[in-house]
Amino acid sequence: MYLGRTVTGRLRAVKVVRREDFERERTFERELEGIQHYERVSHEHPALVDVLHVGRAGDGSFYYYVMELADDEGDGDAQEDPASYRARTLASDLRQSPVRSVAECVDLGIRIAGALAHLHAAGLTHRDVKPSNIIFVNGQAKLADVG
What is the end-to-end Cα distance of the chain in Å, rounded? Predict the structure, then answer.
């Protein structure tokens, strides 16, 4: 994952997916088709990370997608100091404080289950749900790393 800055100065998360990382061309193309479909679906549910743009290299050697940035897990401001940025995830929260109330667990479970149901209704599957793929954006949990 990389950080990129928009022309208006906002930081965004950028994921680059390289063709060379796939044994078969068809698998690479299927992943690209999936993220293109996900781009539209991502804006329809509040617990899915928003994909803001999908692009592809002219020679087809990679594609990339731009997403909203997760909150910073530290006290710093990623907008001011990108080098110190670390995404706030459920995994990072659990490292800092492993105990959660039943209400917090239920709320998080309902939120992520709703995101998964929305994905499945759109014909998409996540395949890698885990604490490090649940990020926080403006304090709200969102399912990320959909590729």
Answer: 12
Q: Please tell me whether the overall predicted TM-score, pTM, comes out greater than 0.85 for this model.
A: yes
Q: What is the SS3 assignment for 1? A: coil
Q: How far is CA 91 from CA 76, 103, 114, 131, 141, in A?
A: 19, 18, 20, 5, 12
The pLDDT tens digits of the residues spanning 60-93 come to 999 999 999 999 998 766 767 788 899 999 999 9
Helix intervals (H) in 63-136: 90-96, 102-121
72: how many CB neighbours lie within 10 A of its CB? Answer: 19
Q: Are 117 and 48 in contact (CB under 8 A)?
A: no
134 CB-near residues (< 8 Å, 6+ apart): 89, 90, 91, 108, 112, 141, 142, 143, 144
Q: Which has the closest alpha carbon to 92: 110, 59, 77, 70?
A: 70
